[in-house]
Design goal:
alpha+beta; 35% helix; Thrombin, subunit H; 680 residues
């Protein structure tokens, strides 16, 4: 996720539709999908074409596939029938019984109880809700009716099992969460007959009221975190205020709201939870938020309750910023795990945490607060000591706080900028953008090109907006200004030879598959001699400092969808300059047999090609219209066609070359010889 790169992508044919979520089989490391309701597909990560993957057509429509870590996949059909995947694959066309009649499945979940998988699903018919509990390996089925609630109906469900009891949580439209306890019965034939004859009505109890300080949460999704905490995604409606979407965490034991995160860009209404991480769609981005649930205590709950008794619902704090008290509460190294992600959540109240703090063991947050008004020299000295003494589990989070403290001071005092200290931290510590999100913004403001170069080369999670800002800053800065800056030239020094007067030394190199006389064959119109002489000049269009900075941009991870809108804002003159440099790199790569540029952190041929395509996608119409871009596009077109023609010729003799290689392996000659082989 931090690299923003898809690791795999598979698609069905045109006209086919995936009709249930794809799951992973934990035992075989295979993916399982269903398209068009009945067609089952199974494939592995190395498979490329989904159409060639294993296919099985089933006899009934599939509602959902649940994958259990130690129980294998379980398939739930729309008619209520359940099969394990192993049983289903033995006879894909086996008849599937219809358990429900006229009912529609609203939710399903699967768990392991001992060695047996248990599947539970809820259905609706004419306003009544039913609960089914199945043990597929034992062919066991129990049906219950959910107790009705006046003027309210269930919106979503979630469940977990403990000691042979299924706890079903229901989020109702009256802004309440109800709890239903369902015992996992020991199944016998007599019990099966009794369950068919009648339905037991399940009573429910109020677990949680989603309101605090006059504000009501209109929930849309609910997940269980542990036995005392639940998370609810929904819209917070406060009196005389606009509703705002929030992710909230509640303590069900003490009926209190523990913490919340506002989501201003909106969500899809869906929330997932897996291995202490929340997954939700925020705007157009998949957001992953780590959390840590500590043991529920009355002191923590009451402390939070006291803190929240304000009319403006001040307990809804912003998890993206760590200010003063929050800084103290978020770094209790002995009590909680530091979270290295976009957001940090600590489910203990800030007030109770500070109250329990031992005065002789100061937290990182308190230490930083003590340095808040110290002199610049004292601050840097203390921060260096703090990084060397930081405990191992919290080391990264501590360093992130140190950088945040420095950037905060830079914002408050424009004359203060510890350039060497910041560069030293980035060079020697394994940081990420999310740990110090203000660092690159401050570096851009101070025009610290070397620090930006280091961040682009080392941070794996830089947002596309910041990547574009760096690119624009590099392209817009004059060469004379860059010459006086300290920039690492390791990525360019091996293929851009620089003399003392900064003029590039030209060396004659033969290009792979590219000859000047081939130009005339591949291009319909001849180029004037003057422009042709310029096109023959293979010198780098920019200086080595700017080239090294642009190479750092080429190394930065990105997602094309998010980067393209920003690239379209790049001025045409700078876009052409960037394309000229990319074309220069492309030619340089093609000169080498292995298409690899020499040097440390030099761009790869794939990175160069990807950025050329991105830039042309973003500015193609503009470049076609600009006279100064015509020659560049023409040269690029000729060179690419020459490359295609060259590799096409190589493909023609591929068979002969393989045969030659085979003959060399068969022949064992220990004497020197010269052989002439004629390729016909």
């Amino acid at each position: 996720i931090s690299d923003q790169k898809p690791l795999g992508c598979w698609s069905v044919k045109h006209g086919q539709i995936l009709t249930c979520p794809v799951v992973c089989n934990f035992e075989t490391h295979e993916y399982i999908a269903v398209h068009d309701d009945k067609v089952l597909r199974i494939w592995k990560n190395e498979d490329i074409n989904l159409d060639k993957a294993f296919k099985a057509t089933l006899s009934a429509d599939v509602y959902r596939i649940h994958s259990l870590p130690h129980g294998g996949p379980v398939v739930l059909f729309r008619g209520g029938g359940v099969r394990t995947l192993d049983v289903l694959l033995e006879a894909p066309q086996q008849e599937i019984e219809n358990v429900i009649s006229g009912e529609v499945i609203r939710w399903s979940g699967a768990f392991m109880e001992g060695q047996q998988p248990v599947l539970i699903f809820t259905t609706e018919k004419d306003g009544d809700f039913f609960v089914y509990v199945q043990k597929p390996k034992l062919s066991s089925l129990h049906k219950y009716k959910l107790e009705q609630q006046e003027s309210a109906k269930p919106l979503c469900f979630t469940a977990h099992t403990t000691n042979q009891i299924v706890t079903l949580l229901c989020l109702y439209s009256n802004d309440s969460v109800y709890q239903v306890l369902i015992p996992l019965q020991q199944d016998t034939e007599e019990e099966e007959e009794e369950e068919v004859e009648g339905e037991e009505v399940l009573s429910k109890s109020l677990l949680l009221k989603l309101s605090v300080s006059g504000a009501v949460l209109k929930g849309t999704s609910l997940v269980v975190l542990d036995k005392d905490h639940v998370a609810v995604l929904g819209s917070l409606a406060a009196p005389r205020k606009e509703p705002r979407e929030c992710l909230t965490i509640w303590n069900t034991k003490f009926q209190t709201l523990q913490t919340s995160k506002e989501l201003p860009l909106g969500t899809s209404g869906q929330l997932w939870c897996y291995e202490e991480k929340f997954f939700l769609i925020h705007g157009k981005v998949l957001t992953v938020i780590m959390y840590k649930c500590e043991t529920s205590s009355l002191a923590a709950a009451v402390g939070k309750l006291k803190y929240s008794q304000t009319p403006d619902v001040s307990l809804f704090m912003n998890w993206n910023t760590l200010e003063d008290e929050e800084l103290v509460a978020s770094f209790q190294s002995q009590e909680s795990v530091a979270l290295k992600a976009e957001s940090r959540i600590n489910l203990r109240s800030r007030r109770s945490t500070v109250a329990e703090e031992q005065p002789e063991t100061l937290s990182v947050g308190q230490i930083l607060l003590n340095f808040k008004d110290a002199s610049n020299y004292v601050l840097e000295t203390k921060l260096r000591k703090l990084m060397t003494k930081a405990p191992t589990p919290d080391l990264q989070a501590t360093i992130g706080c140190v950088v945040t403290a420095l950037t905060d001071r830079c914002k408050r005092n424009p004359k203060y900028y510890p350039q060497n200290f910041l560069q030293e931290i980035v060079e020697t510590r394994n940081l990420s953008y999310s740990l110090c999100p203000d660092l690159m913004a401050v570096a851009l403001e101070k025009k610290d090109m070397h620090l930006l170069q280091l961040c682009l080369e080392r941070f794996p999670d830089i947002p596309e907006e910041i990547t574009y800002a760096c690119l624009k800053a590099f392209l817009s800065m004059s060469e004379s200004h860059l010459e006086n800056m300290d920039v690492n030239l390791d990525s360019v020094i091996c293929y851009i030879d620089v003399e003392f007067d900064n003029e590039e030394v030209k060396t004659e190199v033969v290009e792979n598959g590219f000859r000047a006389e081939m130009d005339q064959d591949l291009c319909g119109s001849k180029i004037p001699k003057e422009s042709q002489s310029r096109s023959d000049d293979d010198s780098c269009p920019i200086g080595p400092q700017k080239a090294a900075l642009l190479n750092a941009v080429l190394h930065s991870a990105y997602t094309e969808t998010f980067l393209l809108p920003h690239l379209k804002n790049l001025p045409a003159e700078e876009a052409i300059l960037f394309l000229r440099y990319l074309y220069y790199l492309y030619v340089k790569c093609s000169e080498k047999v292995n298409t690899t540029l020499p040097g440390i952190r030099s761009p790869t041929i794939n990175q160069i090609m990807d950025w050329m395509c991105l830039l042309l996608d973003a500015h193609f119409t503009v470049m076609v219209m600009l006279p100064e871009a015509k020659e560049l596009l023409s040269n690029l077109h000729k060179f690419v066609r020459a490359q295609v023609r060259f590799y096409s010729e190589l493909n023609k003799i591929e068979g002969s070359l393989r045969e030659l290689q085979r003959l060399n392996h068969l022949r064992e000659s220990h004497t020197y010889s010269i052989e002439v082989l004629e390729i016909i």
